[in-house]
Amino acid sequence: MNTVETENVKIDNKELEVEPKLEVEKSVEEPKNNKRSEAEALIETSKELVEKASLTIEETKANVLKAAEAFDETKRNFKNVIFKKSEALLEKLGFDYVTKEEAEAFELSLGDMNEKKFAVKNLTSGKFTGFLLALFVALLTLVTWSYFAIKNLGININELNVEKATNSVNPMLTWVATDVVPAGGNLVVGGLVVGFSALIVAWIVYAIRVALKKSKNLRVAQETLEASTEFCMAQEDSQQKMKELEKHLLESTTELKNLEIILKEQSAVLTRIDYVEGAFDEEKEYHPSSKKVMRETEKIMRAGEELFSTPMTEEDSVNMQSIEALAVAKEIYSEYLSRIYD
Q1: With contact defined as beta carbons under 8 Å apart, do 277 and 270 qualify?
Q2: 10 Å Cβ neighbour count for 119?
Q3: Which of 134, 178, 249, 303 could lock onto 67 through a cystine, CB 3.0 to 4.6 A?
Q4: Is 0.70 surpassed by the pTM of this model?
């Protein structure tokens, strides 16, 4: 499984803009009599579908990575600057803030759905294998002619050698032109009968092989198109999940920046409290409004910490806990603004 890592970010690689059904309908609307041409057209359609689906997934994956990196940068700025400053001010004022355990990183994982590969194989015409098979059958035909000729001529096969075989060619052809076809023992006729019979048998075998291959190719091409369509639909579902994650990351980045802004204002008020009322001691009793500011600061910090530390995904989908953390952050920011502007 491919993994892309940024600081505190881990992404395990996952609405395709493809319409496989339309492509299939197009192929059906334009039938071709030539099985080979039709099969090649179906394979080409399959390749286009798979290529388009793969490219779209890669683009979506890149967008998710970009959004994740932006969120990670915002998180680090939030955590290492204003969050730490606010935490230190609260501690100075005697307000203990308990940091969430193991809140160093958020995780993104969409499983291995987009890792699936679909290879569309090229079709072969069957001509080469047909040629080899035809050649073998032609030789077998010649051997068969030779066997029957030798048997009818009374030649002992066990005593046959290269010299005797060469010298037996003419008698064999003469036998063919005499006993097989009534040609008066004409060698040329005998040779033509043997040669044409071998060629005819070879051509029949070759033609059958190519015809069967065309039928098989068409069946394979149709099955490939169905499989590639299913692949694209699965990739579409995968891409939709990635788009939902991208949207969630972008919204989370925005809300974390919003919390950063209001936390900076809270930090300024805490600084004023520290300056006016002084640091905490056992005799210290802060003004009720000051205590309220501390509680509000804690609330903002907790919302930010939940947002940047909660795993973004679970079981190949956006994590509901992360969605809830985002909703809380939006609510706190909206409530803060309403107190100021309403």
Answers
A1: no
A2: 8
A3: 249
A4: no
